Amino acid sequence: MEKQKVCERIVEIGIVPVVRAASAREARIAADAVCEGGIPIVEITMTVPGAVDVIRELTKSGSSDVLVGAGTVVNVEAARRCLDAGAQFLVSPGLNVQVIQLAANEGKMMMAGALTPTEVITAWEAGSDFVKVFPCGQVGGAKYIKALKGPLPQVQLVPTGGVNLSTAAEFIEAGAAALGVGGELVQADALKSGKPEIIVENARKFLAIVKDARARMRGSTAAVKGSH
């Protein structure tokens, strides 16, 4: 899938499931579960044992509609291995301009991590397609996203950290392009106890929240326009 389509799909779905798992097998189960729950996107983090092999396997065996990306990509070497394995997008927890440049050269979608306004601007200007605001929950959550969107309306922000079923709607209403969701969606206990149906259900709940929040926003925008 070409980069533009990948970007559009992430905005359309609005959720990027972050898979951290204790084994490659658990990561594959988690990937299947989020897809079954209606989210055809999965970010396999480099902290998963054998992460690159998991990415390779998912891109080969999965449906062409499912976006498989790599997370926690902290340097160019890791980025290169992930891209060679078939990763369609890269996500980093912090700002590494060389990784952004590599993704751009390879025509792949990049979501660089940033926290301060300076880092957000640097990531965006370096060519990151989205900017992952991490750890967002620790610095004010949805209020922080709203504050950043004031001076930086053009930047596609994806808050990660602090996104759960009770805060997801606030993040969307604050202007987030999509949400990065880890343990609140891909619950470690559900994987350990062999209950992927919990993850399937979580995925459906998150999707419904994003859809409802966006519908409310469209409704309020239409109401404002109608009042003029």
Describe this structure in words.
- With 228 residues, the chain is an alpha/beta fold.
- The chain has one domain (3-227): Aldolase class I (TIM Barrel, Alpha-Beta Barrel).
- 50% of the residues lie in helices and 15% in strands.
- The chain is built from ten helices and eight strands.
- It has helices spanning 3-13, 24-36, 51-61, 76-84, 97-105, 117-126, 142-149, 168-173, 188-192, 196-227; strands spanning 15-19, 41-45, 67-71, 89-91, 109-114, 130-133, 157-159, 179-181.
- It has an eight-stranded parallel β-sheet, with helices on both faces.
- Helix 5 (97-105) links the parallel strand 4 and strand 5 (109-114).
- Helix 2 crosses helix 3 and helix 2 (24-36) crosses helix 10.
- The longest helix has 32 residues, at 196-227.
- The radius of gyration is 17 Å and the shape is globular.
- The N and C termini lie far apart (42 Å).
- 47% of the residues are buried.
- The mean pLDDT is 96.
